Every structure is written in structure tokens, then in C-alpha cells.
Amino acid sequence: MTNTTSPFPEGFLWGGATAANQIEGAYNQDGKGLSVQDVLPHGLRSPRTPAPTPDNLKLEAIDFYHHYAEDIALFAEMGFKVFRFSIAWSRIFPNGDDKEPNEAGLAFYDRVLDELEKHGIEALVTLSHYETPLHLADAYGGWTDRRLINLYERYARTLLERYGSRVKYWLTFNEINSLVHEPFMSAGIPETEQLTEQDLYQAMHHELVASARATRIAREVAPNAKIGCMIIAMPIYPLSPSPQDAAAVMDLDHSNLAFGDVHTRGAYPGYFLRALKEKGIELNITDEDRTDLTNTVDFVSFSYYQSVAHTSDPAKLIRGEGNIMGGVPNPTLEASEWGWQIDPIGLRLVINQFWDRWQKPLFIVENGFGAKDQLVDINGVKTVIDDYRIAYLNDHLVQVGEGIADGADVIGYTSWGCIDLVSATTAQLSKRYGYIYVDRNDDGSGSLERFKKKSFDWYAEVIRTNGATLQG
């Protein structure tokens, strides 16, 4: 049955999301320095290499650096209201601690914004999306070093002063709650035998302070801008109805919610301080830090791909193939080829939980379905018949509508990988998310030509009708 009315509010920000290291390429052009992504050729669970290697698809990615005008024109054809992209820190400050920014890098993002403005598309900019400058990882130990707060502050101020009048929506760190699970990719922290939980949580604190400082700077230099945090959303269900499993779920949920609590409330919650104390961890928090943290965000953004179950029974704690955040596979749910369990209703639950908890506008900035698409020729037109992706996105967007009908203030939705890009978790291009197929393969071959998938027209119609064509 097709809806004739839509719960999505007028002005809802429909669009798509990407990250610099997964689309730009041009890893060593126009003064760009290396980032941690340039030495992770096989994804987040692979060992780093000493230097970039030819098998790293991210070095060229889909060459958005030279195709940005063409790609943004395709986004406009779909009707995008907003485009989420990240700025590569090492394109602006090649080493991260340079005294002056790289003008060629700044000029590139000026050109990207020019194209977005030409097509009437709002920019949603992520300041740091899993690409700490490699020099900061090797020379400082990444975010374990307090000095990165000031280096990030200089970087954020540079961008906010340059683009603050052109960009309304900003995110400080991508999926900040991933730091303790994937320290090198998320925070440039080399994983050595000496790395301790104390180090990881101190690095977390440094990032939270840096995020709050960026929020304060934005209010100073770009008063019309809106600043948000960005976290991984992951609803957690008890594996059984036992109270012990419910308590285990609460504890795991708290470990994720703490990041949003600090961003929205300006201080660490008691349950989190208790958990650190029981781990024997005492954070070095200065009075200045406490003042900085009171600069709370304007909205909460999040990624949503899957839910998990959890249990207090150690014998049943089996890590799911696609899960990096704890929990166990839910026996009631199906999973994608990469082990990500598919749970549209979980998105409605997260929307309600976050709205009830924080009372801040919500922005869904990542959600999508990775699959191995097959390019076909239909009457001389190359395309992908990706009905599986349409079904996944439809079902999740229906639940977004339910969350809005429940009373939550959801301001937008940017589906992940709106154009095919290199996967962060596997560094593959064959794990495709986009509405636009890019002719590049895992072996590096391909023409980089762009083709519209079936989902391209489907999403365009969803946007045109403000969600009224969704099948509920």
C-alpha cells in the first residue's frame, strides 16, 4: 500500500553521505599529506603498512577529487537537499601540526561548495572522519597525546573561519564512540603491546574536549552554523528475558550512550565514571577541560546499520561477524553478506531513545546496504537492478517516519555511500552502497565511469514526494 500523506516535515533534509578517504583519491596531490587511511590497504582489521601500497584502493578511490562536479550534478538530479562529506585534515594541514594551512587543499573544498551552491544543495561537513594525519599517529601516538586538542582546534578554526558563512551543518568527529574499539582508524593510535585501556579512555577524553572546543569556536566565528556530534547507534536486545541479561544490555548500552551524554549534557554521567573506576581508570581532567565540555552540541547525528543482542552468559558471548561494538548475533534477524544484521524497527527504537534522552534534534547521517551489485545492459543502458537495496532503504525510511510520528524531531537523512565508494571496514569497492555505480573493481581496474542504478530513480521519487511514495 502506498502512503498518500507523509510524516516527514516540510524542509526535511534528504540526501547522501560520503567520507573524503573513501571517495576523493588524489592522496598525494596538491600538497596533501598522508593519513592513517593511506596505510590501511585492507580495512580496519588489517595491519597497517609502513607506507602507501598499490593495493590500497583508497589512494585513488572513485577520484571524486576530479569528478566532483559530475557527481554533485547527479546528486542534484536525484533532488538532494543536503550532501554530507568530510574534509581531509591532511589536505589542509599535511602533517597535522603544520604552522600554516595548505591553500591548495582549502581551494579544493571551495570548489566543492561552489558546485553544491550552484545546485541548491546544503553542505553537511564532517571535520574528522577516520583520517587522522599519519604524522600525528607516528610522532604523537594519535589522540593519546593531549597536544592534539590544540592541533585540532587550529584545524577546526581554520575551516570554520573559511567556510562558516557557507556551511550551516557541521559534525566534529565521525562515530566518536568507535575509538575504544578501533583505535588506529578512529583516533590514529598505534596498536602496540603497551597500549592500555587507560590510554584509550584518555584519548577519548581528549577527543571529547576537542569536539567541545570546536563547538565553542563555531559559535564565535559562525554564529548561524549548527554543530552536531556523530555516534554509532546500535540498539541492544537481551538474548533472553532474564534480569541478568537486561542488566548486561544496560551496561553495554551505557558504554555507547556516554558519548552522546557528554556532548549534550556537558559532563560525564555517573554510570560512566563508575565503570571507569571499576576498570582502575582515572582520567586526567583539568578545570579547563570541564569548562570546555559545557559547550554542548546543537543536534545529535548518528549512523545506523544494525542492532545486536547481548547476554550475561560468557559461554554465549560470540562476536558477530559484522559487529565491532560488542554484543552477539540476534537469532531472530537476517544478516547481509558481511554479517550486518538487518533491523529496520531498531531504527525507530533508536530515534525514540535518543529523542527521549537528549531532547536535541536528530540527524540520521548514515544508513545503507552494502552488496555486490551486478552491472547489466538493458536496451543499451547500463544499470544495476538493486531491488534489495530499495527494499532495505524503504523499510528503514518507513521506520524513520514512524519515529517522527512518535514525536521525535528528525531533521534529515543522508544515506551512506550515495555513490559507490571504498568500504571502510573491508577496503573493497565490491561492497557497494550507492545509487550511482562507479566502474572500478577490487583489483583497481575500471574506467571510473558513472551509471545510475534502479535505486537512483526510486530515491529521487522519495525525495520529490517527501517520503509519500514509501511502501509501509
From TrEMBL:
One of its GO terms (molecular function) is beta-glucosidase activity. InterPro entries: GH, GH_1_N_CS, Glyco_hydro_1, Glyco_hydro_1_AS. Keywords: Glycosidase, Hydrolase. SUPFAM superfamilies: (Trans)glycosidases. The active site is at E366. One of its GO terms (cellular component) is cytosol. One of its GO terms (biological process) is carbohydrate catabolic process. The keyword Methyltransferase does not apply. PANTHER family: 6-PHOSPHO-BETA-GLUCOSIDASE ASCB-RELATED (PTHR10353:SF122), GLYCOSYL HYDROLASE (PTHR10353). Belongs to the glycosyl hydrolase 1 family. This is Glycoside hydrolase family 1 protein. It comes from Cryobacterium zhongshanensis.
